[in-house]
């Protein structure tokens, strides 16, 4: 089964078997639950087999296959009493997507924490002690857990993406899978995804970054896509960016997980303060949050600290996540006549500079680190501020500004950036502008940015202090069409005391002006791979999160901005995967 494709390859042992299958199955309709599926078969010369490269696990994550024997598995499952009479003894609950028991201490889902002064009558079952002693002797843990949560999942059930509350539990978390295998998704705040097959009788150990920073969850479905070479393999499942033809479907069964944790009695002091509820207040104290600027000097300072400095610091990591050009931008560039002069203002790592080899493209960016990456790729680029471009007026047939103007912090500076683009254009020249949209849900479609946070709707609430939000439907409501006049555009919400707020990644926006986190591993900074121009020695050893300033554009706002410039006509405007976009033409 090639990933993300509507077809699969089947290999038969004999030609006669293949002919018989083709005769009996081609064009036949099958009822699959509530759907009718029609099969179409055709011969191919060979089956492509492109193996995926090794996919590394999150730092601190270990999976130990066959950690318990079949006899131990049966003993542990038999020790569970799911009868209603044990509800108070083990804080037993029937959740929407699973049923749960707690031992030692109850984990409360109303506040995502434990009441450390109210231990449960039932401690960890004696049947678990030999397994925990084995973990001690193998140095997987250095102290016995005192809390156990048992989750039982039927086929089609799951658990939302979450991070176990930092202040509730110590670092090491053990998760023992019994019964059927499943696939658990681990997601980094920047969008990186590792889907890991958890075989029955395996032990998952989470420490460090995998425990504190990555969310983990199980998508509710009845089948998983897994490597077909070994149905019980614990290898990571290739995601969209990995190619792997040896995949198949694995039907889920009943799975029971034993999650062992140690109650924490002191505040957490991990190295990930942006997602740590113990450090949330002290990590970014309210007075340190910048205010929305009220003058040119304040705006320039804000952008220097929360745009220019950040992108220079994260340039290699940022570039590694920006490799797929957006299709509608590519269409615009590809439609230009051969020999056209094109300026990419805010070119980043230069991913659009090679889209159309028949045009003459130059790029510029404020980040010298990103420009260095472009230069190494052979592009014609230079460092420049988008407000003062060292290029002749009326010298370009086309300009693009992709995800740039939303980094300017005042209306005047955003207008100046658009005016500078127009200055470069010849009469009749066109500029394509993309900015991040406040409306991440538009025409009843959620953007990829929100879909990446959760591909399913759950009724369970996750603590915001853990870096996740309520996963129920909670999106910004799209505004009514203002006919691009801009007359009725209003600020979505006032900033508390004028301070910018820090956005929670992959959730709906709550204000138009905010700071968006970018997570960077400490060890990469310490090795000097990402050497920000303003990072001192203390920052090099402690910085894990950078914050980028954004102004989120409302519907009609970008058209209104362009409409304030004389000699410009808005040719078209549209919403493209969470961005507002306009194509403008210089008429004079």
From TrEMBL:
Cofactors, names only: Fe(2+)
This protein's UniProt keywords: Methyltransferase, RNA-binding, Transferase, Zinc
Keyword Cytoplasm: no
Pfam family, one: Methyltransf_11
GO molecular function: S-adenosylmethionine-dependent methyltransferase activity; tRNA (5-carboxymethyluridine(34)-5-O)-methyltransferase activity; tRNA binding
Region named Disordered: 453-485
PROSITE patterns in the cross-refs: FE2OG_OXY (PS51471)
Biased composition (Polar residues): 459-478
Coiled-coil stretches noted in the UniProt entry, renumbered to this chain: none
Identification of the protein by name: AlkB homolog 8, tRNA methyltransferase
């Amino acid at each position: 089964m090639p990933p993300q494709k509507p077809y699969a390859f089947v290999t038969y042992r004999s030609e006669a078997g293949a002919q018989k299958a083709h005769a009996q199955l081609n064009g036949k309709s099958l009822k699959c639950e509530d759907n009718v599926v029609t099969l179409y078969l055709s011969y191919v010369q060979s089956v492509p087999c492109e193996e995926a490269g090794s996919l590394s696990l999150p730092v601190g994550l270990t999976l130990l296959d066959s950690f318990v024997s079949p006899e131990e598995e049966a003993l542990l499952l038999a020790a569970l009493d799911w009868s209603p009479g044990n509800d108070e003894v083990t804080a037993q609950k029937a959740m929407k997507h699973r049923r749960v028991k707690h031992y030692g201490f109850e984990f409360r889902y109303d506040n995502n924490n434990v009441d450390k002064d109210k231990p449960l009558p039932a401690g960890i079952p004696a049947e678990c002690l030999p397994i925990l002693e084995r973990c001690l002797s193998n140095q997987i843990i250095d102290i016995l857990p005192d809390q156990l949560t048992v989750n039982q999942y039927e086929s089609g059930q799951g658990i939302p993406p979450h991070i176990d509350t930092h202040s509730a539990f110590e670092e090491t978390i053990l998760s023992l899978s019994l019964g059927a295998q499943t696939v658990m998704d681990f997601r980094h705040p920047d969008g990186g995804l590792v889907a890991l097959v958890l075989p029955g009788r395996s032990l998952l150990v989470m420490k460090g970054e995998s425990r504190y920073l990555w969310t983990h969850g199980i998508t509710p479905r009845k089948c998983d896509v897994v490597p077909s070479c070994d149905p019980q393999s614990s290898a990571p499942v290739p995601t969209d960016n990995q190619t792997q033809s040896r995949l198949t479907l694995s039907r889920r069964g009943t799975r029971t997980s034993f999650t062992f944790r140690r109650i924490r009695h002191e505040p957490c002091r991990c190295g990930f303060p942006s997602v740590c509820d113990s450090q949330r207040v002290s990590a970014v104290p309210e007075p340190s949050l910048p205010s929305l600027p009220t003058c040119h000097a304040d705006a320039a300072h804000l952008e220097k600290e929360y745009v220019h400095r950040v992108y220079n610091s994260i340039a290699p990591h940022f570039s590694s996540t920006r490799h797929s050009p957006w299709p509608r931008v590519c269409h615009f560039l590809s439609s230009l006549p051969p020999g056209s002069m094109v300026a990419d203002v805010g070119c980043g790592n230069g991913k659009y500079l090679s889209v159309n080899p028949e045009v003459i493209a130059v790029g510029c960016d404020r980040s010298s680190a990103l420009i260095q990456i472009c230069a190494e790729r052979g592009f014609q680029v230079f460092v420049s501020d988008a407000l003062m471009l060292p290029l002749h007026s009326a010298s370009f047939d086309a300009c693009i500004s992709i995800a740039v103007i939303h980094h300017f912090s005042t209306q005047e500076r955003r207008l100046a950036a658009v005016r500078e683009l127009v200055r470069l254009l010849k009469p009749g020249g066109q500029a394509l502008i993309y900015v991040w949209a406040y409306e991440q849900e538009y025409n009843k479609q959620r953007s990829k940015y929100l879909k990446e946070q959760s591909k399913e709707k759950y009724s369970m609430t996750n603590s915001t202090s853990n870096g996740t939000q309520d996963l129920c439907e909670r999106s910004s409501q799209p505004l009514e069409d203002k006919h691009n006049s801009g007359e009725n555009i209003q600020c979505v919400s006032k900033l508390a005391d004028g301070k910018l707020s820090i956005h929670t990644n992959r959730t709906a926006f709550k204000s138009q002006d905010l700071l968006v986190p970018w997570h960077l591993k400490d060890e990469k900074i310490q090795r000097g791979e990402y050497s920000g121009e303003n990072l001192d020695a203390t920052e090099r050893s402690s910085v894990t999160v950078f914050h980028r300033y954004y102004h989120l554009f409302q519907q009609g706002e970008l058209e209104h901005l362009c409409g304030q410039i004389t000699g410009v006509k808005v040719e078209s405007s549209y919403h493209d995967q969470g961005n507002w976009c306009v194509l403008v033409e210089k008429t004079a």
